[in-house]
Write a structure and sequence with these properties.
single chain; alpha+beta; Rieske Iron-sulfur Protein; 2 domains; 3-stranded antiparallel sheet; 1 helix
């Protein structure tokens, strides 16, 4: 046994440091958990949603396809979310483009402008896009339309998450 004794002042100092360290860790742990938890959650990447569109009915003319993601969970809230895509065939490849304009987020329509019937048109500020989603120079959009991941299963078109346009 050691002959060196702990003074009252040292004992009080060690006790307060221990309690202070415990309290600091008790406050920091929820913050660390909050920051790290999203990284540990498995993401929805790779999830595809079925649409009612049959793959063999698609042509080279884009058609509007509406689909709903059922029971999307956002924190503690579950809801159904509806989305839209413009889907067409380019040879044997099925292309699905997001209808969200890159200028202000308005919804683009295929052939919505009489002067440019073979382009996507944004009615908010007369933005135009080529069929592959490339924004037409001299119009307000600042980038191409996003593209959906596409999968065909049992003859139906399945749409995944959006990604930057790979066609342009």
């Amino acid at each position: 046994m050691s002959k060196k004794r702990v003074s009252r002042r040292q004992f009080l100092s060690y006790s307060l440091m221990g309690v202070g360290g415990f309290m600091a860790s008790a406050m920091l742990m929820p913050m660390v958990r909050f920051a790290v938890d999203p990284v540990l959650q498995h993401g929805g990447a790779g999830d595809y949603t079925a649409t009612k569109q049959k793959a063999d009915e698609l042509t080279e003319t884009p058609v509007r396809v509406d689909f709903t993601i059922v029971d999307r969970e956002d924190g503690w809230y579950k809801s159904d979310e509806s989305y839209t895509a413009w889907v067409y065939k380019d040879g044997d490849t099925i292309i699905a483009l997001s209808p969200v304009c890159k200028h202000l987020g308005c919804t683009v329509n295929w052939g919505g402008d009489e002067n440019h019937p073979n382009q996507f048109f944004c009615p908010c500020h007369a933005g135009r896009y080529e069929k592959n989603g490339m924004n037409v120079a001299g119009t307000p959009p600042i980038g191409p339309l996003d593209e959906f991941d596409v999968m065909v299963q049992d003859g139906l078109v399945y749409l995944g998450t959006t990604k930057p346009n790979t066609l342009v």
